Amino acid sequence: MREIKPRSPLALLLIGIAVLYAVVLFAAPLVAIIYGAFKDGIDPIIETLTDPAVLHAFEVSIGLALGAVLINTIFGLVTAWVLVRQKFRGRGLFDTLIDIPFVFSPVIAGYAMIVLFGRGGWLAPPLFPIVFALPGILLAKTFVSLPFITREVQPVLGALSLEPEYAAYTLGASRWATFRRVILPELWTALLYGIVLTFARAVGEFGAVAVVGGNIEGYTETATSFVFRAMNDRNSTGAYVVSLILCLVSLLILFLMNLLRRRMVVSRG
Amino acid sequence: MAEQSQVYGSSNIGEQPPSSRPYVPGFGAWGLRLMAISYLTVFIVIPLLVVNVQGLRFGLDVFWQSISRPEAVSALTLSVTTSLVMTVINTVMGTLTAYVLVRYKFPGKTLFNTLVDLPFAIPTLVIGVMLVLLYGPQTIVGKFLQQELGVRILFDTPGIVIALLLVGYPFVIRAVQPVLLQMDSNQTDVAQTIGASPWTTFRRVIFPIIRPAMVTGALLSFARSLGEFGSIIVVAGNIPMRSQTGTVYVYTQVEAGNMQAASSVSMVLLLVAFAATIGIDMMNWRRHARN
Protein backbone atom coordinates (compact mmCIF):
# COMPACT_ATOMS: atom_id res chain seq x y z
CA MET A 1 0.00 0.00 0.00
CA ARG A 2 1.28 3.45 -0.91
CA GLU A 3 2.13 5.96 1.75
CA ILE A 4 0.18 9.22 1.40
CA LYS A 5 0.05 12.57 3.14
CA PRO A 6 -2.98 12.69 5.41
CA ARG A 7 -5.36 15.28 3.97
CA SER A 8 -8.87 14.27 4.93
CA PRO A 9 -10.20 14.90 8.43
CA LEU A 10 -10.74 11.15 8.73
CA ALA A 11 -7.03 10.50 8.16
CA LEU A 12 -6.09 13.03 10.83
CA LEU A 13 -8.62 11.52 13.19
CA LEU A 14 -7.19 8.01 12.69
CA ILE A 15 -3.62 9.23 13.29
CA GLY A 16 -4.84 11.10 16.35
CA ILE A 17 -6.49 8.01 17.81
CA ALA A 18 -3.45 5.78 17.17
CA VAL A 19 -1.01 8.29 18.67
CA LEU A 20 -3.24 9.10 21.63
CA TYR A 21 -3.71 5.41 22.41
CA ALA A 22 0.05 4.83 22.34
CA VAL A 23 0.70 7.90 24.48
CA VAL A 24 -1.87 6.95 27.13
CA LEU A 25 -0.67 3.35 27.14
CA PHE A 26 3.12 3.90 27.03
CA ALA A 27 4.29 7.47 27.33
CA ALA A 28 2.34 8.20 30.50
CA PRO A 29 3.75 5.19 32.42
CA LEU A 30 7.27 6.00 31.14
CA VAL A 31 6.99 9.57 32.39
CA ALA A 32 5.61 8.25 35.68
CA ILE A 33 8.60 5.98 36.22
CA ILE A 34 11.14 8.69 35.45
CA TYR A 35 9.30 10.95 37.89
CA GLY A 36 9.16 8.17 40.49
CA ALA A 37 12.88 7.42 40.30
CA PHE A 38 13.92 11.07 40.59
CA LYS A 39 11.28 12.41 42.98
CA ASP A 40 13.42 12.06 46.13
CA GLY A 41 16.47 13.61 44.58
CA ILE A 42 19.74 12.07 43.54
CA ASP A 43 20.92 10.59 46.87
CA PRO A 44 18.57 7.59 47.00
CA ILE A 45 19.53 6.84 43.40
CA ILE A 46 23.21 6.69 44.27
CA GLU A 47 22.38 4.68 47.36
CA THR A 48 20.48 2.14 45.25
CA LEU A 49 23.17 1.94 42.62
CA THR A 50 25.88 1.21 45.18
CA ASP A 51 23.78 -1.28 47.13
CA PRO A 52 25.63 -4.62 46.93
CA ALA A 53 22.30 -6.48 46.68
CA VAL A 54 21.39 -4.45 43.58
CA LEU A 55 24.77 -4.94 41.96
CA HIS A 56 24.65 -8.66 42.65
CA ALA A 57 21.13 -8.86 41.25
CA PHE A 58 22.26 -7.22 38.01
CA GLU A 59 25.25 -9.56 37.82
CA VAL A 60 22.98 -12.58 38.13
CA SER A 61 20.48 -11.20 35.60
CA ILE A 62 23.02 -10.26 32.96
CA GLY A 63 25.44 -13.16 33.50
CA LEU A 64 22.76 -15.83 33.28
CA ALA A 65 21.00 -14.07 30.39
CA LEU A 66 24.30 -14.25 28.50
CA GLY A 67 24.50 -17.93 29.44
CA ALA A 68 21.03 -18.48 28.02
CA VAL A 69 22.06 -16.61 24.86
CA LEU A 70 25.09 -18.90 24.48
CA ILE A 71 23.08 -22.10 24.89
CA ASN A 72 20.31 -20.92 22.59
CA THR A 73 22.75 -19.65 19.97
CA ILE A 74 24.55 -22.97 19.65
CA PHE A 75 21.50 -25.21 19.87
CA GLY A 76 19.19 -22.79 18.08
CA LEU A 77 21.51 -22.65 15.07
CA VAL A 78 21.78 -26.44 14.99
CA THR A 79 18.00 -26.77 15.28
CA ALA A 80 17.37 -24.27 12.50
CA TRP A 81 19.87 -26.14 10.33
CA VAL A 82 18.34 -29.54 11.02
CA LEU A 83 14.79 -28.30 10.43
CA VAL A 84 15.66 -26.61 7.13
CA ARG A 85 18.17 -29.03 5.66
CA GLN A 86 17.14 -32.45 6.89
CA LYS A 87 14.01 -34.43 6.28
CA PHE A 88 12.90 -36.92 8.86
CA ARG A 89 9.73 -38.25 10.39
CA GLY A 90 8.39 -35.99 13.08
CA ARG A 91 10.12 -32.90 11.72
CA GLY A 92 6.80 -31.05 11.51
CA LEU A 93 6.10 -31.89 15.13
CA PHE A 94 9.45 -30.52 16.28
CA ASP A 95 8.91 -27.45 14.18
CA THR A 96 5.65 -26.80 16.05
CA LEU A 97 7.22 -27.54 19.44
CA ILE A 98 9.69 -24.67 19.11
CA ASP A 99 6.98 -22.04 19.54
CA ILE A 100 5.69 -23.53 22.78
CA PRO A 101 7.70 -21.25 25.09
CA PHE A 102 5.82 -18.32 23.54
CA VAL A 103 2.54 -19.58 24.96
CA PHE A 104 3.78 -21.68 27.87
CA SER A 105 3.35 -19.58 30.98
CA PRO A 106 6.82 -19.01 32.50
CA VAL A 107 5.40 -19.64 35.96
CA ILE A 108 4.26 -23.07 34.82
CA ALA A 109 7.65 -23.74 33.22
CA GLY A 110 9.36 -22.86 36.48
CA TYR A 111 6.98 -25.12 38.31
CA ALA A 112 7.77 -28.01 35.92
CA MET A 113 11.44 -27.54 36.73
CA ILE A 114 10.74 -27.77 40.46
CA VAL A 115 8.87 -31.02 39.92
CA LEU A 116 11.75 -32.35 37.84
CA PHE A 117 14.81 -31.14 39.71
CA GLY A 118 13.53 -30.19 43.16
CA ARG A 119 14.02 -32.19 46.33
CA GLY A 120 12.57 -35.63 45.73
CA GLY A 121 11.99 -34.64 42.11
CA TRP A 122 11.98 -37.02 39.16
CA LEU A 123 15.52 -36.12 38.20
CA ALA A 124 16.82 -34.63 41.43
CA PRO A 125 20.51 -33.91 40.76
CA PRO A 126 22.88 -35.74 43.10
CA LEU A 127 25.86 -33.37 42.92
CA PHE A 128 24.73 -29.78 43.00
CA PRO A 129 21.31 -28.16 43.48
CA ILE A 130 19.43 -26.83 40.45
CA VAL A 131 16.26 -25.55 42.04
CA PHE A 132 16.63 -22.48 44.31
CA ALA A 133 20.11 -22.10 42.83
CA LEU A 134 21.72 -20.46 39.81
CA PRO A 135 21.58 -23.47 37.41
CA GLY A 136 17.79 -23.45 37.74
CA ILE A 137 17.64 -19.79 36.79
CA LEU A 138 19.85 -20.46 33.78
CA LEU A 139 17.50 -23.24 32.67
CA ALA A 140 14.47 -21.00 33.19
CA LYS A 141 15.97 -18.15 31.20
CA THR A 142 17.00 -20.56 28.42
CA PHE A 143 13.49 -21.97 28.23
CA VAL A 144 11.63 -18.67 27.98
CA SER A 145 13.96 -17.33 25.27
CA LEU A 146 14.33 -20.57 23.33
CA PRO A 147 12.37 -19.89 20.11
CA PHE A 148 13.91 -16.59 18.97
CA ILE A 149 17.20 -17.65 17.38
CA THR A 150 15.80 -20.68 15.58
CA ARG A 151 12.84 -18.66 14.33
CA GLU A 152 14.99 -15.79 13.06
CA VAL A 153 17.61 -17.97 11.37
CA GLN A 154 15.25 -20.57 9.87
CA PRO A 155 13.68 -18.43 7.10
CA VAL A 156 17.01 -16.90 6.04
CA LEU A 157 18.65 -20.31 5.88
CA GLY A 158 15.69 -21.65 3.94
CA ALA A 159 15.87 -18.89 1.35
CA LEU A 160 19.62 -19.33 0.84
CA SER A 161 20.82 -20.45 -2.55
CA LEU A 162 22.73 -23.73 -2.56
CA GLU A 163 25.05 -22.85 -5.46
CA PRO A 164 27.73 -20.92 -3.51
CA GLU A 165 27.81 -23.81 -1.08
CA TYR A 166 28.32 -26.35 -3.88
CA ALA A 167 30.98 -24.12 -5.35
CA ALA A 168 32.81 -24.12 -2.02
CA TYR A 169 32.62 -27.93 -1.84
CA THR A 170 33.83 -28.20 -5.42
CA LEU A 171 36.80 -26.02 -4.55
CA GLY A 172 37.62 -28.45 -1.80
CA ALA A 173 36.36 -26.60 1.28
CA SER A 174 35.45 -28.74 4.25
CA ARG A 175 31.90 -28.72 5.65
CA TRP A 176 32.95 -26.55 8.57
CA ALA A 177 34.87 -24.10 6.39
CA THR A 178 31.89 -23.86 4.05
CA PHE A 179 29.58 -23.16 6.94
CA ARG A 180 31.87 -20.57 8.47
CA ARG A 181 32.92 -18.79 5.28
CA VAL A 182 29.92 -19.19 2.99
CA ILE A 183 26.76 -19.76 5.04
CA LEU A 184 27.39 -17.96 8.32
CA PRO A 185 28.07 -14.54 6.72
CA GLU A 186 24.58 -14.71 5.20
CA LEU A 187 23.02 -15.53 8.56
CA TRP A 188 24.78 -12.92 10.69
CA THR A 189 22.11 -10.23 10.73
CA ALA A 190 19.27 -12.62 11.45
CA LEU A 191 21.37 -14.38 14.07
CA LEU A 192 22.25 -11.11 15.80
CA TYR A 193 18.60 -10.07 15.74
CA GLY A 194 17.70 -13.38 17.35
CA ILE A 195 20.46 -12.93 19.93
CA VAL A 196 19.18 -9.46 20.86
CA LEU A 197 15.62 -10.77 21.25
CA THR A 198 16.88 -13.74 23.28
CA PHE A 199 18.88 -11.50 25.59
CA ALA A 200 15.96 -9.10 26.07
CA ARG A 201 13.58 -11.91 26.96
CA ALA A 202 16.09 -13.69 29.21
CA VAL A 203 17.20 -10.63 31.14
CA GLY A 204 13.66 -9.45 31.83
CA GLU A 205 12.13 -12.75 32.84
CA PHE A 206 10.51 -12.80 36.24
CA GLY A 207 7.85 -15.50 36.65
CA ALA A 208 9.93 -18.58 35.87
CA VAL A 209 12.96 -17.21 37.68
CA ALA A 210 10.93 -16.36 40.78
CA VAL A 211 9.52 -19.88 40.97
CA VAL A 212 12.76 -21.77 40.27
CA GLY A 213 15.16 -19.43 42.02
CA GLY A 214 13.07 -18.66 45.07
CA ASN A 215 14.31 -15.01 45.15
CA ILE A 216 17.03 -15.61 47.75
CA GLU A 217 18.58 -12.24 48.51
CA GLY A 218 22.22 -11.97 47.51
CA TYR A 219 22.13 -15.35 45.79
CA THR A 220 19.35 -16.11 43.32
CA GLU A 221 17.84 -12.66 43.32
CA THR A 222 17.80 -11.13 39.83
CA ALA A 223 17.21 -7.50 38.91
CA THR A 224 13.50 -8.14 38.33
CA SER A 225 13.13 -10.11 41.57
CA PHE A 226 14.87 -7.25 43.39
CA VAL A 227 12.21 -4.89 42.04
CA PHE A 228 9.51 -7.27 43.23
CA ARG A 229 10.98 -7.53 46.73
CA ALA A 230 11.56 -3.77 46.92
CA MET A 231 7.91 -3.16 45.99
CA ASN A 232 6.74 -5.50 48.73
CA ASP A 233 9.16 -4.02 51.30
CA ARG A 234 7.92 -0.51 50.49
CA ASN A 235 11.44 0.37 49.35
CA SER A 236 9.78 2.22 46.52
CA THR A 237 12.75 4.33 45.42
CA GLY A 238 14.90 1.23 45.04
CA ALA A 239 12.20 -0.44 42.98
CA TYR A 240 11.75 2.62 40.77
CA VAL A 241 15.44 3.20 40.19
CA VAL A 242 16.13 -0.42 39.21
CA SER A 243 13.00 -0.41 37.03
CA LEU A 244 14.19 2.73 35.30
CA ILE A 245 17.57 1.11 34.58
CA LEU A 246 15.81 -1.93 33.15
CA CYS A 247 13.71 0.45 31.00
CA LEU A 248 16.86 2.11 29.69
CA VAL A 249 18.36 -1.29 28.90
CA SER A 250 15.25 -2.22 26.97
CA LEU A 251 15.33 1.06 25.03
CA LEU A 252 18.92 0.23 24.07
CA ILE A 253 17.78 -3.22 22.99
CA LEU A 254 14.99 -1.65 20.96
CA PHE A 255 17.49 0.63 19.25
CA LEU A 256 19.67 -2.38 18.36
CA MET A 257 16.64 -4.27 17.04
CA ASN A 258 15.77 -1.33 14.83
CA LEU A 259 19.30 -1.05 13.49
CA LEU A 260 19.44 -4.76 12.67
CA ARG A 261 16.02 -4.73 11.06
CA ARG A 262 17.13 -1.97 8.72
CA ARG A 263 20.20 -3.97 7.76
CA MET A 264 17.99 -6.96 7.05
CA VAL A 265 15.75 -4.90 4.78
CA VAL A 266 18.81 -3.57 2.93
CA SER A 267 20.51 -6.94 2.54
CA ARG A 268 17.31 -8.65 1.47
CA GLY A 269 16.68 -5.99 -1.16
CA MET B 1 9.73 -11.43 -1.76
CA ALA B 2 8.49 -13.11 -4.91
CA GLU B 3 11.37 -11.71 -6.94
CA GLN B 4 13.82 -12.64 -4.27
CA SER B 5 12.90 -16.29 -4.29
CA GLN B 6 13.42 -16.40 -8.04
CA VAL B 7 16.93 -15.07 -7.70
CA TYR B 8 18.07 -16.95 -4.64
CA GLY B 9 15.58 -19.56 -3.78
CA SER B 10 16.33 -22.93 -5.19
CA SER B 11 14.92 -24.35 -2.00
CA ASN B 12 12.30 -23.03 0.36
CA ILE B 13 11.39 -24.21 3.81
CA GLY B 14 9.25 -27.30 3.68
CA GLU B 15 10.11 -28.10 0.09
CA GLN B 16 11.90 -31.21 -0.99
CA PRO B 17 15.59 -30.63 -1.56
CA PRO B 18 16.25 -30.29 -5.28
CA SER B 19 16.30 -33.65 -6.98
CA SER B 20 19.82 -33.04 -8.29
CA ARG B 21 20.97 -33.41 -4.70
CA PRO B 22 20.00 -36.80 -3.35
CA TYR B 23 19.87 -36.42 0.41
CA VAL B 24 21.88 -38.93 2.39
CA PRO B 25 22.41 -37.97 6.01
CA GLY B 26 26.04 -38.46 6.91
CA PHE B 27 27.54 -39.11 10.29
CA GLY B 28 27.69 -35.37 11.09
CA ALA B 29 24.09 -34.88 10.03
CA TRP B 30 22.94 -37.52 12.50
CA GLY B 31 24.93 -35.82 15.23
CA LEU B 32 23.30 -32.47 14.51
CA ARG B 33 19.86 -34.02 14.36
CA LEU B 34 20.45 -35.73 17.69
CA MET B 35 21.57 -32.40 19.18
CA ALA B 36 18.47 -30.57 17.94
CA ILE B 37 16.10 -33.28 19.10
CA SER B 38 17.66 -33.58 22.54
CA TYR B 39 17.56 -29.79 22.96
CA LEU B 40 13.85 -29.63 22.18
CA THR B 41 13.13 -32.73 24.24
CA VAL B 42 14.92 -31.49 27.35
CA PHE B 43 13.55 -27.96 27.26
CA ILE B 44 10.07 -28.46 25.82
CA VAL B 45 8.79 -32.04 25.69
CA ILE B 46 9.80 -32.96 29.23
CA PRO B 47 8.34 -29.87 30.96
CA LEU B 48 5.11 -30.40 28.98
CA LEU B 49 4.93 -34.03 30.07
CA VAL B 50 5.77 -33.18 33.67
CA VAL B 51 2.87 -30.76 34.08
CA ASN B 52 0.37 -33.16 32.54
CA VAL B 53 1.55 -36.27 34.35
CA GLN B 54 1.67 -34.39 37.65
CA GLY B 55 -1.84 -33.05 37.09
CA LEU B 56 -3.37 -36.43 36.26
CA ARG B 57 -1.30 -38.44 38.70
CA PHE B 58 -4.15 -39.16 41.08
CA GLY B 59 -6.76 -39.61 38.42
CA LEU B 60 -9.38 -37.49 36.75
CA ASP B 61 -11.51 -37.13 39.87
CA VAL B 62 -8.76 -35.42 41.83
CA PHE B 63 -7.94 -33.30 38.80
CA TRP B 64 -11.56 -32.27 38.48
CA GLN B 65 -11.86 -31.53 42.19
CA SER B 66 -8.81 -29.30 42.19
CA ILE B 67 -9.96 -27.22 39.24
CA SER B 68 -13.49 -26.87 40.57
CA ARG B 69 -12.42 -25.26 43.82
CA PRO B 70 -13.97 -21.76 43.92
CA GLU B 71 -10.55 -20.04 44.02
CA ALA B 72 -9.38 -21.99 41.00
CA VAL B 73 -12.56 -21.35 39.02
CA SER B 74 -12.42 -17.65 39.87
CA ALA B 75 -8.73 -17.41 38.90
CA LEU B 76 -9.27 -19.19 35.56
CA THR B 77 -12.35 -17.12 34.78
CA LEU B 78 -10.51 -13.90 35.57
CA SER B 79 -7.60 -14.91 33.32
CA VAL B 80 -9.84 -15.79 30.40
CA THR B 81 -12.16 -12.78 30.67
CA THR B 82 -9.40 -10.18 31.09
CA SER B 83 -7.50 -11.77 28.18
CA LEU B 84 -10.62 -11.70 26.03
CA VAL B 85 -11.37 -8.04 26.80
CA MET B 86 -7.74 -7.21 26.06
CA THR B 87 -7.88 -9.16 22.78
CA VAL B 88 -10.94 -7.27 21.52
CA ILE B 89 -9.50 -3.82 22.33
CA ASN B 90 -6.05 -4.79 21.10
CA THR B 91 -7.34 -6.14 17.77
CA VAL B 92 -9.31 -2.98 16.98
CA MET B 93 -6.59 -0.55 18.11
CA GLY B 94 -3.77 -2.67 16.68
CA THR B 95 -5.38 -2.82 13.23
CA LEU B 96 -6.03 0.91 13.32
CA THR B 97 -2.42 1.61 14.36
CA ALA B 98 -1.02 -0.69 11.69
CA TYR B 99 -3.14 1.06 9.04
CA VAL B 100 -2.01 4.51 10.19
CA LEU B 101 1.64 3.40 10.24
CA VAL B 102 1.46 1.99 6.72
CA ARG B 103 -0.81 4.52 5.06
CA TYR B 104 0.06 7.98 6.33
CA LYS B 105 3.16 10.13 6.53
CA PHE B 106 3.39 12.10 9.74
CA PRO B 107 6.18 13.54 11.87
CA GLY B 108 7.60 11.15 14.44
CA LYS B 109 6.36 8.11 12.57
CA THR B 110 9.75 6.33 12.53
CA LEU B 111 10.09 6.76 16.28
CA PHE B 112 6.52 5.54 16.79
CA ASN B 113 7.19 2.50 14.64
CA THR B 114 10.30 1.67 16.66
CA LEU B 115 8.58 2.07 20.01
CA VAL B 116 5.83 -0.38 19.03
CA ASP B 117 8.19 -3.22 19.95
CA LEU B 118 8.91 -1.83 23.42
CA PRO B 119 6.81 -4.50 25.18
CA PHE B 120 9.01 -7.18 23.56
CA ALA B 121 12.08 -5.58 25.12
CA ILE B 122 10.87 -4.40 28.51
CA PRO B 123 10.48 -6.77 31.49
CA THR B 124 6.77 -7.13 32.16
CA LEU B 125 7.37 -6.71 35.89
CA VAL B 126 8.66 -3.22 35.08
CA ILE B 127 5.47 -2.57 33.11
CA GLY B 128 3.63 -3.37 36.33
CA VAL B 129 5.79 -0.98 38.35
CA MET B 130 5.18 1.77 35.78
CA LEU B 131 1.43 1.29 36.06
CA VAL B 132 1.56 1.39 39.86
CA LEU B 133 3.40 4.70 39.63
CA LEU B 134 0.81 6.06 37.21
CA TYR B 135 -2.44 4.75 38.66
CA GLY B 136 -1.54 4.25 42.33
CA PRO B 137 -3.90 5.76 44.92
CA GLN B 138 -1.41 8.52 45.84
CA THR B 139 -0.75 9.72 42.29
CA ILE B 140 -2.62 12.51 40.50
CA VAL B 141 -4.12 10.20 37.90
CA GLY B 142 -5.01 7.47 40.36
CA LYS B 143 -6.60 9.91 42.83
CA PHE B 144 -8.63 11.56 40.08
CA LEU B 145 -9.94 8.26 38.70
CA GLN B 146 -10.84 6.95 42.13
CA GLN B 147 -12.41 10.06 43.67
CA GLU B 148 -14.04 11.69 40.65
CA LEU B 149 -15.00 8.66 38.62
CA GLY B 150 -15.02 5.94 41.25
CA VAL B 151 -12.81 3.69 39.13
CA ARG B 152 -10.26 1.54 40.91
CA ILE B 153 -7.42 0.54 38.60
CA LEU B 154 -4.96 -1.20 40.90
CA PHE B 155 -5.76 -4.46 42.67
CA ASP B 156 -8.74 -4.87 40.40
CA THR B 157 -9.78 -6.00 36.93
CA PRO B 158 -9.11 -2.70 35.06
CA GLY B 159 -5.47 -2.79 36.15
CA ILE B 160 -5.08 -6.32 34.80
CA VAL B 161 -6.62 -5.36 31.45
CA ILE B 162 -4.39 -2.28 31.13
CA ALA B 163 -1.29 -4.35 31.94
CA LEU B 164 -2.29 -6.95 29.34
CA LEU B 165 -2.95 -4.23 26.75
CA LEU B 166 0.64 -3.05 27.19
CA VAL B 167 2.06 -6.56 27.05
CA GLY B 168 0.04 -7.51 23.98
CA TYR B 169 0.38 -4.20 22.11
CA PRO B 170 2.81 -5.24 19.33
CA PHE B 171 1.20 -8.54 18.35
CA VAL B 172 -1.69 -7.36 16.16
CA ILE B 173 0.26 -4.41 14.73
CA ARG B 174 3.21 -6.57 13.71
CA ALA B 175 0.92 -9.22 12.21
CA VAL B 176 -1.21 -6.80 10.14
CA GLN B 177 1.49 -4.32 9.08
CA PRO B 178 3.34 -6.52 6.52
CA VAL B 179 0.06 -7.58 4.89
CA LEU B 180 -1.02 -3.96 4.48
CA LEU B 181 2.41 -3.08 3.09
CA GLN B 182 2.12 -5.75 0.40
CA MET B 183 -1.42 -4.80 -0.50
CA ASP B 184 -2.02 -3.25 -3.88
CA SER B 185 -3.14 0.39 -3.56
CA ASN B 186 -5.03 0.11 -6.86
CA GLN B 187 -7.76 -1.93 -5.23
CA THR B 188 -8.60 0.73 -2.68
CA ASP B 189 -8.21 3.47 -5.30
CA VAL B 190 -10.67 1.73 -7.59
CA ALA B 191 -13.14 1.28 -4.75
CA GLN B 192 -12.95 4.97 -3.92
CA THR B 193 -13.22 5.98 -7.57
CA ILE B 194 -16.43 4.08 -8.06
CA GLY B 195 -17.84 5.89 -5.07
CA ALA B 196 -17.30 3.65 -2.07
CA SER B 197 -17.12 5.40 1.28
CA PRO B 198 -13.92 4.94 3.33
CA TRP B 199 -15.81 2.58 5.64
CA THR B 200 -17.14 0.50 2.75
CA THR B 201 -13.65 0.41 1.23
CA PHE B 202 -12.26 -0.85 4.48
CA ARG B 203 -15.00 -3.40 5.06
CA ARG B 204 -15.21 -4.78 1.53
CA VAL B 205 -11.64 -4.38 0.20
CA ILE B 206 -9.09 -4.12 3.01
CA PHE B 207 -10.69 -6.19 5.76
CA PRO B 208 -11.00 -9.44 3.76
CA ILE B 209 -7.28 -9.27 2.95
CA ILE B 210 -6.02 -8.52 6.46
CA ARG B 211 -8.51 -10.69 8.34
CA PRO B 212 -6.22 -13.76 8.67
CA ALA B 213 -3.38 -11.57 9.99
CA MET B 214 -5.76 -9.89 12.43
CA VAL B 215 -6.92 -13.25 13.76
CA THR B 216 -3.32 -14.49 14.05
CA GLY B 217 -2.29 -11.40 16.01
CA ALA B 218 -5.39 -11.59 18.18
CA LEU B 219 -4.88 -15.26 19.06
CA LEU B 220 -1.17 -14.76 19.75
CA SER B 221 -1.83 -11.86 22.09
CA PHE B 222 -4.61 -13.87 23.76
CA ALA B 223 -2.32 -16.85 24.37
CA ARG B 224 0.44 -14.56 25.58
CA SER B 225 -1.91 -12.83 28.05
CA LEU B 226 -3.09 -16.07 29.60
CA GLY B 227 0.48 -16.77 30.70
CA GLU B 228 1.30 -13.24 31.83
CA PHE B 229 2.54 -13.01 35.39
CA GLY B 230 5.10 -10.28 36.17
CA SER B 231 2.98 -7.24 35.43
CA ILE B 232 -0.17 -8.72 36.95
CA ILE B 233 1.32 -9.63 40.31
CA VAL B 234 2.54 -6.05 40.74
CA VAL B 235 -0.59 -4.33 39.43
CA ALA B 236 -3.29 -6.60 40.81
CA GLY B 237 -1.60 -8.13 43.81
CA ASN B 238 -2.69 -11.55 44.85
CA ILE B 239 -6.19 -11.32 46.28
CA PRO B 240 -7.97 -14.71 45.92
CA MET B 241 -11.44 -14.53 44.33
CA ARG B 242 -10.83 -10.93 43.31
CA SER B 243 -7.60 -10.11 41.51
CA GLN B 244 -5.85 -13.49 41.45
CA THR B 245 -5.40 -14.70 37.87
CA GLY B 246 -4.59 -18.26 36.81
CA THR B 247 -0.81 -17.83 36.73
CA VAL B 248 -0.78 -15.99 40.06
CA TYR B 249 -2.86 -18.84 41.49
CA VAL B 250 -0.31 -21.37 40.19
CA TYR B 251 2.50 -19.32 41.70
CA THR B 252 0.74 -19.17 45.07
CA GLN B 253 0.05 -22.91 45.07
CA VAL B 254 3.67 -23.74 44.18
CA GLU B 255 4.88 -21.51 47.02
CA ALA B 256 2.50 -23.33 49.36
CA GLY B 257 3.76 -26.71 48.14
CA ASN B 258 0.33 -27.64 46.79
CA MET B 259 1.47 -29.34 43.59
CA GLN B 260 -1.82 -30.93 42.59
CA ALA B 261 -3.65 -27.59 42.53
CA ALA B 262 -0.76 -25.97 40.66
CA SER B 263 -0.64 -28.72 38.01
CA SER B 264 -4.36 -28.88 37.38
CA VAL B 265 -4.80 -25.15 36.83
CA SER B 266 -1.61 -25.09 34.74
CA MET B 267 -3.04 -27.80 32.52
CA VAL B 268 -6.23 -25.86 31.89
CA LEU B 269 -4.27 -22.67 31.10
CA LEU B 270 -1.97 -24.54 28.72
CA LEU B 271 -4.91 -26.23 27.04
CA VAL B 272 -6.63 -22.92 26.31
CA ALA B 273 -3.38 -21.34 25.08
CA PHE B 274 -2.70 -24.34 22.82
CA ALA B 275 -6.21 -24.25 21.43
CA ALA B 276 -5.52 -20.65 20.41
CA THR B 277 -2.21 -21.47 18.71
CA ILE B 278 -3.57 -24.56 17.01
CA GLY B 279 -6.25 -22.27 15.64
CA ILE B 280 -3.50 -20.16 14.04
CA ASP B 281 -1.75 -23.21 12.59
CA MET B 282 -4.95 -24.58 11.10
CA MET B 283 -5.82 -21.24 9.59
CA ASN B 284 -2.41 -20.91 7.97
CA TRP B 285 -2.55 -24.47 6.78
CA ARG B 286 -5.94 -23.93 5.14
CA ARG B 287 -4.74 -20.77 3.46
CA HIS B 288 -1.69 -22.57 2.08
CA ALA B 289 -3.89 -25.40 0.87
CA ARG B 290 -6.15 -22.94 -0.95
CA ASN B 291 -3.28 -21.16 -2.73
What's the CATH H-level superfamily name of the largest domain in chain B?
A: MetI-like
What helical percentage do the residues of chain A reach? over 70%
* Residues in helix, % of chain B: over 70%
Low-confidence stretches of chain A: none
Task: Output the structural class of chain B.
Answer: mainly alpha
Class computed from helices, strands and strand pairing of chain A: mainly alpha
Tell how many strands the DSSP assignment of chain B holds: 0
H/I helix tally of chain B: 14
Biggest sheet architecture of chain B: none
CATH architecture of chain A: Orthogonal Bundle
The string of secondary-structure elements of chain B, in order, is: HHHHHHHHHHHHHH
Number of helices of chain A: 13
CATH topology assignment of the largest domain in chain B: MetI-like fold
Calculate the terminal CA-CA distance of chain B, rounded to whole Å: 16 Å
Shape of chain B: globular
Can you describe what's shown?
The complex is a heterodimer of chains A (269) and B (291). Chain A has 269 residues and is an all-alpha fold. Chain A has one domain (21-267): MetI-like (MetI-like fold, Orthogonal Bundle). Chain A has helices at 9-38, 43-50, 52-85, 91-97, 100-103, 106-117, 134-144, 147-159, 163-170, 175-204, 207-213, 223-232, 236-267. Chain A is globular, with a radius of gyration of 23 Å. Chain A starts with 8 loop residues before the first helix and ends with a helix. Chain B has 291 residues and is an all-alpha fold. Chain B is 77% helix and 0% strand. Chain B has helices at residues 2-7, 27-56, 59-67, 70-103, 109-115, 118-121, 124-135, 140-148, 157-182, 185-193, 198-226, 230-236, 246-255, 259-290. The longest helix of chain B has 34 residues, at 70-103. Chains A and B meet through α1, α3, α4, α5 and α6 of A and α1, α2, α4, α5 and α6 of B.
Descriptors for this entry?
heterodimer, A: 269 residues, mainly alpha, MetI-like fold, B: 291 residues, 77% helix, 0% strand, globular, disordered N terminus
